[in-house]
Design a protein that fits this description.
alpha+beta; two-stranded antiparallel ribbon
Length: 102
């Protein structure tokens, strides 16, 4: 099962997990996204990203804490419909909305 990035990553500027990922499966669009996303089709379940995360936002998909289970779907869905996921992230944790910036 792939790793998942949860709510603690929202608006976190550190991208240490990207630097340690051996298969480059962690993505985001800098001017549009408020968090990073792990592609479950590319993740090799190595776990290198988890200890690199300074905010403890990364979990194995089958160990995501109950209140954060939705992030399993959100990470996977971002690769098919990023705008819908961005809208949901903004609903889950209101804050700055980068998609509204002109």
């Amino acid at each position: 099962m792939a790793f998942v990035i949860t709510e603690a990553c929202i608006d976190e500027a550190t991208q240490d997990c990207i630097d340690v990922c051996p298969v480059d499966c962690i993505h985001f669009e800098p001017e549009a996204d408020r968090k990073l996303y792990i592609d479950p089709g590319e993740c090799i379940d190595c776990g290198a990203c988890q200890p690199a995360c300074p905010v403890d936002a990364i979990f194995p998909g089958n160990k995501v804490p109950g209140p954060m289970k939705e992030y399993v779907d959100l990470d996977a869905r971002w690769y098919k419909d990023p705008d819908a996921v961005r809208t949901r992230i903004n609903a889950l944790k209101p804050g700055r909305d980068k998609t509204a910036v002109a």
